[in-house]
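Amino Acid Chain and Its Fold in Token Form
===========================================
Structure side: the spatial fold of the chain, written down as a series of whole-number tokens.
Position: the record begins directly beneath this header, with no further notes in between.
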Amino acid sequence: MKSFQDQVAIVTGAGQGIGLEICRQLVRGGAKVVLNDIDDALTAKAAASITDDQSICLPLTGDASKIEFIHRMVSETVRRFGRLDIVIANAGITLFGSFFEYKPEDFNTLLNLNLGGSFFLTQAASIEMKKSGTPGRILLMSSVTGHQAHKNLAAYGMTKAALEMLAKTLVLELSPHKITINAIAPGATLTERTVSDPTFEATWSRITPTGRPATVADIAHAALFLVSPAAGQITGQSLVVDGGWTSTSPSPY
């Protein structure tokens, strides 16, 4: 099904994991995708793994927390493809640390990317969509840590809860321009980072009601629904994809 035929999307932090799978599914649905990551080699490899004679996935390396790069990414997308329909602010970092010992430099790094990058990408994309009259779709990447307490993730969880409030608040300003904005909150997910922990899958399979952690495809399916034409009446919402974990919330520790 080509639900995204002729649409153009930006996905940040998409060199691997959830972001890469979202790009893959968007391209499969007919979209032209600008795939961003901060690692040049990873960005190029990821885009090459998706692009073929029938599809387009353009790599664009850069720091998604930097305002100058955000503006360049939006303008380059429009210059290359003539429009911008979908933005998925997936770029983010997780910095564990005890609350009592958390460093100001780590706090600022976390806020600059997780909040600042998402906020200003949303701003730049919305301005372009408003100018062109495009009925856009914006998706922010939250986390179950924005809903439930996790040890050593106070700052990270705070940023993720803030993104959900941003999605709710911007309904007032974006809806008149036919732009929807939502957030998705993944739970434990099997990615390149998490599978490096030999206990991760077994632990989360034990404490997740559905009996397993999510796959990147699980998260991408939910993300694509929220940016699809089928979700045109959904905005300001946060969708948790966690196999029911937030309903019971047993600690993994």
About this structure: The chain has one domain: 8-242. Residues 104-132 form the longest helix (29 residues). The domain at 8-242 is CATH 3.40.50.720 (Rossmann fold).
